[in-house]
Design a protein that fits this description.
The structure holds two protein chains of two kinds. Chain A is mainly alpha-helical. Chain A is about 40% helix and about 5% strand. The relative contact order of chain A is 0.10. Chain B is built from three helices and three strands. In chain B, helix 1 links the parallel strand 1 and strand 2. Classes of the chains: A mainly alpha, B alpha/beta. Chains A and B meet through helix 1, strand 1 and helix 2 of A and helix 1, strand 2, helix 2, strand 3 and helix 3 of B.
Chain lengths: ~170, ~60
């Protein structure tokens, strides 16, 4: 297995295992681009898509249903429909982040889309502990002393900032 | 809702409970997820994550 996903050779076997296991439901196959907004890495993105398509095709040829295929993150979504497949995963662009692709490609045209949050309240079902050093990324919270305090501070910082800037549509980089 | 990040097996019961879909990239993890879903009497929707199979790139990004 690769650090970023199952290897091409093992993907069909894993899909078969999921399909054959009653407690698991095979809903899709996907890959994730590491640098889709980098023009110098476009060859790799295209190669990765070809690999995904090849794996999906071979998996389906074995009679395994793959209901959904997806690979496009924000940058790949902007690059065009050749990367879209069954759905796209627009994440950071929802926060009005125009990736490097949009910044440095004058030929790329895009329109402003008005968005509003689908939800205003999130129920936290899991939280990971953060080391005290993690808070250093947020100067306004750097004075938090304890690890617990740091974790709470970061969480409040994230929540407050997201809520404030989603509602205002302001430029947000996290 | 699909969680694309790794969910430790000891926390996947939360995904099962809340109906969050999980991604899998290793059969041993899929087995662990299945065991948790079995104990809960539920079915966990999963997406198989395919790697880019570029050791050089992975090494570059790791460091």
């Amino acid at each position: 297995m690769g650090r970023f996903g199952v290897s091409l050779d093992d993907a069909a076997n894993l899909a078969k295992y999921v399909t054959d296991t009653p407690e698991l439901a095979m809903e899709g196959m996907y890959t994730h681009f590491s640098a889709a907004d980098d023009d110098d890495m476009l060859y790799h993105v295209e190669h990765q898509v070809q690999n995904l398509d090849s794996v999906v095709e071979s998996t389906r040829a074995q009679g395994i249903k793959v209901p959904m295929v997806h690979c496009a993150n924000s940058a790949a979504t902007m690059r065009g429909t050749q990367f879209h497949r069954d759905m796209v995963r627009v994440g950071i662009s929802l926060y009005v982040w125009l990736c490097n692709l949009a910044r440095h490609s004058p030929a790329l045209t895009y329109s402003v889309v008005q968005v509003r949050p689908a939800t205003r309240h999130w129920r936290c079902c899991s939280a990971r502990g953060l080391p005290p050093s993690a808070v250093m990324a947020h100067p306004s919270r750097a004075s938090e002393a304890s690890a617990q305090g740091a974790q709470r501070g970061v969480w409040q910082h994230i929540h407050g900032r997201a809520r404030r800037e989603l509602c205002s549509g302001a430029y947000w980089i996290w | 809702m699909l969680c694309m990040g790794f969910i430790p097996p000891n926390q996947v019961h939360l995904a099962v409970h809340y109906g969050v879909k999980a991604s899998v990239a290793e059969s041993s993890i899929a087995e662990a997820y299945a065991a948790v879903a079995r104990d809960a009497g539920r079915v966990l929707d999963v997406h198989v994550k395919v790697g880019d199979c570029s050791p050089a790139l992975e090494s570059t990004l790791t460091h």
